[in-house]
Amino acid sequence: MKKITKICCIGAGYVGGPTMSVIANKCPHIAVTVVDINEDRIAQWNTPNLDNLPIYEPGLKEIIRESRGKNLFFSTDVDKAIDEAQMIFISVNTPTKTYGKGKGQAADLKFVELCARNIAKVAKEDKIVVEKSTLPVRTAEAIKNILDHTGNGVVFEILSNPEFLAEGTAIDDLLNADRVLIGGDDTPAGKAAKNALSDIYENWLPKERILQTNVWSSELSKLVANAFLAQRVSSINSISALCEKTDANIAEISRAIGFDSRIGPKFLNASVGFGGSCFQKDILNLVYIARSFGLKEVADYWEQVIIMNDYQKRRFADHIIQSLYNTVSGKKIVLYGWAFKKDTNDTRESAAIHIADALMDERAEIVVYDPKVSEERIYADLDYLETRTPDENRTLLKVVSNPMEASREAHGIAVVTEWDEFKSYDWTKIYELMLKPAFIFDGRRILDTQNMRQIGFNYYKIGEA
Ligand code: NAD
Ligand code: UGA
């Protein structure tokens, strides 16, 4: 096995960008080139002003500042980077299929397949190909099939190395990963490839945290990890609805059960519902795979996690409508937040989109403030739903940059992302600016109930009566 001195990563997105930045930063002896077909995205990664990087992630710009131009490069020359690298990561998007067989559930692997074909076309020397994207179990087989039929004698080892970073904490998650998973063949060449990848991570992570498995376990573990995490959120959200009926308090319940070391305290925050590009997509994919093997009960079991999440988003919007005397038509409702969680500008599958859409169906006038999400992105998210015309979306929803001003003459404010800055707002001033009775709907449980009620708000916190 040749020494790894050059790495190429295809896909400069939320995973490719941060992951490769950290690898480059921790491995100064390796040249890392991140490539993408999206020219704008690459131009943004190369921006001299590090505040204009294509993604916002705490700690990212500091790492880019140290490594970019030294051993970290962003380029659109995909073929050159593939040709030169001994190890190629595939980190492209794997969205849910929107057409044909498996529409709405299966993963769309066309981008991954295109990468494999491109590698097959360009490679002149043996290479290790690493699946970084989240893929259905047994995808490596398809990639291997494409790569094994080039007829040019080049030998490829395929590894699965799923990524477990969460957005908003990506850099910390990468620097202090709980574990790194490397799946590959148990042949001598497969083992050597796994060790070569392990060597890279061992530059900053203890060896015990680097787990080696077979390819299929690695691919499936990634889907299962996301399914378990999402299941915890849906479980606690289901109980939040019960708390609101019974005077029990969801925070007290999370604390009480989280103290059980077998359950643990993390991922027990009730919310407006989980979002993000992966939880729903990966569970749908798991459901699809289970169903395709005839495992109906398994598929139904996991599908319930998504059904519960949809219920929670709908329940929150319905609660707003009910509280505002069963009509929000012509009423100004402010959404604080649009991102699917704090500390990211990513809005994919954000609960905010669905809540806004439900309120707009009732002809509410929505005003959105998010500290990191652009107006263009917000409209794109709504237009994508195709619930109404782009013109109607722009009439019914406005995006603003001043959160205080947004509250003027509002009937209600819904907190849908847990940005820290919302906690430190002058809520007394906001109360004065709003129409009375002034309603706050806290879908993230970040404000103090007693304080808000003392100010005079009609304050609703998810999971509390
Ligand atoms: P993304 O959409 O942000 O980035 C993917 C990039 O790949 C895009 O910039 C796109 O232009 C590029 N691309 C697509 N086809 C290409 C091709 N043929 N050649 C070159 N570039 C190409 O996606 P992401 O969020 O980075 O996710 C990538 C994968 O990682 C997905 O499978 C996802 O499930 C998984 N994942 C994501 C996260 C996350 O937090 N976002 C975490 C873990 C795993
Ligand atoms: C998630 C996983 O945490 C990562 O390990 C995984 O790599 C990634 O998906 C992926 O495969 O894409 P991410 O979606 O970035 O990461 O963010 P999370 O912190 O997991 O939050 C997901 C959603 O659940 C957010 O909308 C968040 O607000 C919500 N959530 C999370 C809750 O509502 N309550 C909680 O207690 C935790």
From TrEMBL:
Metabolic or biological pathway, per its Swiss-Prot or TrEMBL entry: Nucleotide-sugar biosynthesis; UDP-alpha-D-glucuronate biosynthesis; UDP-alpha-D-glucuronate from UDP-alpha-D-glucose: step 1/1
Superkingdom of origin organism: Bacteria
Catalysis: reaction(s): UDP-alpha-D-glucose + 2 NAD(+) + H2O = UDP-alpha-D-glucuronate + 2 NADH + 3 H(+)
InterPro entries: 6-PGluconate_DH-like_C_sf, NAD(P)-bd_dom_sf, UDP-Glc/GDP-Man, UDP-Glc/GDP-Man_DH_C, UDP-Glc/GDP-Man_DH_C_sf, UDP-Glc/GDP-Man_DH_dimer, UDP-Glc/GDP-Man_DH_N, UDPglc_DH_euk
GO biological process, one term: UDP-glucuronate biosynthetic process
N-terminal signal peptide: none
GO MF annotation: an example: UDP-glucose 6-dehydrogenase activity
UniProt keywords, alphabetically: NAD, Oxidoreductase
EC id: 1.1.1.22
NCBIfam families assigned to the protein according to its UniProt record, in alphabetical order: NDP-sugDHase
Functional summary from the UniProt entry: Catalyzes the conversion of UDP-glucose into UDP-glucuronate, one of the precursors of teichuronic acid.
Protein family (similarity comment): Belongs to the UDP-glucose/GDP-mannose dehydrogenase family.
Protein name (database record): UDP-glucose 6-dehydrogenase
